[in-house]
């Protein structure tokens, strides 16, 4: 019975329906009139969309087990390894840094706008570093390993990525004066939208979303971000507001004539959980062991993926430059 109880808890936890079931059992729905109750009522939306996405794929005979196998295994693995690590990192940063904030904000609509702009900047910083620093890429690459886009990809993360991401994002926001209740509200919105933009073509064939694509980052933009096409590499780092991608010139709309190729550029086995989860760390270790001298070994940790001590660099920037120069000369 213990096993079935555990499976029941895991299933209701994944679907986000635990609190709703408790309300149903008690017959007391007063919590739905509170802020936390509203958040709990919304939380099942993404898991429900994932189930709809899978169902539609089965009905239209587009379901491939390999598209969902690795995200599922990564999710299960992370449940065993890092259940509470990320929230602990957030609370630690708040406790340490809140007294150093440049000023204090409140939970009002105008500070919400300010807070969200700051949050997007913090997210941009974390995400940019995740692509430009080899060690951080080792943590982030698991999320880019799937070769198809669907909602299960949102659960595909190396267990240390969330704590490292939240330390950077929380630290910037707290120091910029975003108060904790407002920060948690923003994080909820960001997490919900950040999950939704992984929606696959089985639910949303065209992810551009019409005029909204001019205002926010839609699933189309995030599909571009997950592409390994040279033109699309290292673009669209923001999550909802595209302001910082435009400021730092990493904004890239989807090109109709260019078919998206998902995955990462190194040769790998996307169906192997160990390659997806630990492959980049292993490659980093091999490069460090082969590099002469302490300095070169350390440079492999902090330089962008594709950097080489031999000068034969294959970074995203160089790959993109070669691609664009080839198109220009064609």
From TrEMBL:
The keyword DNA-binding does not apply. InterPro entries: Fatty_acid_hydroxylase, Sterol_desaturase/TMEM195. It is a multi-pass membrane protein. Its main location: membrane. GO terms for molecular function: glyceryl-ether monooxygenase activity; iron ion binding. It holds the Pfam family FA_hydroxylase. Keywords: Lipid metabolism, Membrane, Oxidoreductase, Transmembrane, Transmembrane helix. It is found in: Endomembrane system. One of its GO terms (cellular component) is endomembrane system. One of its GO terms (biological process) is membrane lipid metabolic process. This is Sterol desaturase family protein. It comes from Chitinophaga solisilvae. The lineage of its organism: Bacteria, Pseudomonadati, Bacteroidota, Chitinophagia, Chitinophagales.
């Amino acid at each position: 019975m213990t096993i079935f109880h555990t499976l029941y808890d895991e299933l209701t936890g994944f679907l986000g329906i635990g609190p709703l079931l408790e309300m149903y059992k008690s017959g007391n729905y007063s919590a739905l009139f509170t802020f936390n109750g509203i958040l709990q009522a919304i939380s099942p939306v993404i898991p429900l969309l994932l189930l709809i996405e899978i169902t539609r794929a089965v009905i239209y005979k587009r379901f491939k087990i390999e598209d969902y196998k690795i995200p599922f295994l990564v999710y299960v693995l992370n449940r065993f390894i890092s259940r509470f690590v990320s929230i602990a990192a957030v609370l630690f940063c708040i406790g340490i840094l809140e007294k150093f904030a440049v000023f204090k904000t409140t939970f009002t609509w105008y500070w919400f706008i300010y807070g969200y702009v700051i949050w997007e900047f913090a997210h941009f910083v974390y995400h940019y570093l995740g692509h430009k620093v080899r060690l951080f890429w080792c943590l982030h690459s698991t999320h880019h390993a799937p070769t198809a886009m669907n909602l299960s990809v949102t659960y595909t993360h190396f267990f240390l990525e969330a704590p490292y991401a939240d330390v950077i994002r929380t630290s910037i926001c707290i120091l910029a004066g975003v108060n904790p209740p407002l920060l948690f509200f923003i994080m909820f919105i960001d997490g919900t939208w950040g999950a939704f933009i992984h929606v696959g073509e089985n639910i949303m064939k065209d992810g551009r979303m019409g005029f909204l694509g001019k205002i926010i980052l839609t699933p189309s933009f995030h599909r571009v971000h997950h592409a390994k096409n040279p033109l699309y590499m290292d673009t669209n780092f923001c999550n909802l507001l595209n302001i910082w991608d435009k400021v730092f010139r990493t904004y890239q709309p989807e090109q109709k004539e260019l078919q998206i190729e998902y995955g990462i550029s190194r040769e790998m086995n996307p169906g192997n959980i160990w390659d997806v989860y630990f492959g980049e760390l292993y490659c980093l270790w091999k490069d460090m062991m082969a590099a002469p001298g302490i300095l070169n070994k350390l440079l492999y940790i902090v330089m962008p993926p594709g950097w080489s001590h031999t000068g034969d660099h294959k970074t995203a920037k160089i790959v993109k430059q070669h691609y664009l120069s080839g198109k220009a000369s064609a």
